[in-house]
Amino acid sequence: MSENVTKAKSGSTPIIRKVKKNQHKPHGGSWKIAFADFVTAMMAFFLLMWLIASLNKAQKDGIAEYFKQPMKITFFGGKNVGNQQINLKGGGPNLKDTNGQVSTTDKASAQSKQAQDIQVIQSNQEETQKLEELKSQINLSIQKDPSLAGLKDQLLMEVVKNGLRIQLIDNQKKPMFDVGSDKLNPGMELLFAQIAKLLQGVPNKITIEGHTDAYPYHNPDELEYTNWELSTQRANAARRALVKAGLDPDRVIRVSGFSSTLLLNTKDPYSPENRRISIIVLKKGSENKVMDNKATGNKVLDNKVLDNKAIDNKATDNKIMK
Fold first, then answer.
1. Structural domains of the chain, count
2. Is residue 4 part of a domain?
3. Could you tell me if residue 179 is inside a domain?
4. Are 157 and 139 contacting, i.e. CB atoms less than 8 angstroms apart?
5. Axis crossing angle, helix 227-244 with helix 186-199, rounded to the nearest 10
6. Residue 278, SS3?
7. For the domain that residue 181 is a member of, what is the CATH number?
C-alpha cells in the first residue's frame, strides 16, 4: 500500500508557480502644469504685496472705497480713486546716465529741504540766545536800580516757544492797578519804563496780554463791563506806558485781554498773582503767525475798546467788586 502511494507521488506532475510583478504605468506631465500654476499664483501674490506696500494712505483709502461700492465708484468716481499715479522706484541704474551723473531732481529737492530745515533750526537757536541775553539784561538792570529792586519778585520771565514772555504780576501790598481800575500805579510805571528801555535794543515785534483773577467785576453804573473789558484795558494801559517810555508804537502788533481764562495759579483762582500783564517778545516765526491772523485778534486803541473776537465773550452773572 505504501509502495503504491510512493509511486503515485513520484509520478505526479510538477506545479511551477510564476509570480507576475505589476509594472507602474508611465507617468504623465500633468503635475508639472499644476506646479507651474502654483508658482505663477505665488509670484502674483508677492507682486500684489509689493504693490500694496508702495501705496500711500490716500491711495489705500481709494482702493478700499472702490471695493465697498464698486459700481458707484465706476460710474460716479470717488475720492482718491483714478486721479493718482503710483511711481515705483526701480532697482537698477538709469541707462541714460553718464559716468559721474549722480544728482537727480528728487535728491536735489531733498537736499534743499534739509538745508532749509537746518537754517530754520540755526535761526531759532540764535533768536533763543538773544532772548536769553535780553532776559539777563532786564534782571540785571532791575537789581542795580534801588527804586526797582523791591519789584523784582513781581517780575517773571521765561523763554517759551514763541518768544520771551515777561510777566508783571500783582501783589496785595504793591498792586499794579487800583481795584477795578486800568490806571497804572507810579511804581509800576517805572518798571514798565525800564523794560521799554531795554526792549528798544531788539527789533522783535511785541504782543501784550491782560489777565484778571476769578473775582467778577461789579459796577452798578456799568452792568455790561466785565473782566474781559478790564483785562483788555489794563493791557492797553501797559502798551501806553511802554510807548510813553520810548518804545516804537509800531512794534506792538496785538493787545488782548483774556479775563480769568488763563490763570497763573490754577489752585487759587482768586490769588493776586493771577492779575498780571504779559509782554511777549516774539520770535520771527511767531511774529508772522500773529500778523497772518491779525484780523482775529483783539485790538485796542487808547480808550476805544473793540469787541474781543478771539475769545468768546463769557460775561459773568454774579458780579462782585473786584
1. 1
2. no
3. yes
4. yes
5. 60
6. strand
7. 3.30.1330.60
pTM above 0.85, yes or no: no
C-alpha closest to that of 255 among 203, 202, 308, 217:
308
In a domain, 28, yes or no: no
- Domain residues for the domain of 262 are 122-305
Residue 99 counted as domain residue? no
pLDDT (tens digit, 0 to 9) for every residue of the chain, 322 residues total?
444 544 445 557 778 777 666 666 666 678 888 899 999 999 999 998 998 888 888 888 888 777 776 655 555 555 555 555 555 555 555 555 555 554 566 666 777 777 777 777 777 888 889 999 999 999 898 888 888 878 888 899 999 999 999 999 998 888 899 888 899 988 889 899 999 999 998 999 999 999 999 998 877 677 778 999 999 999 999 999 999 999 999 999 999 999 999 999 999 999 999 999 999 999 988 888 888 776 554 443 333 333 333 333 333 333 333 3
- Location of C-alpha cell 509670484: 43
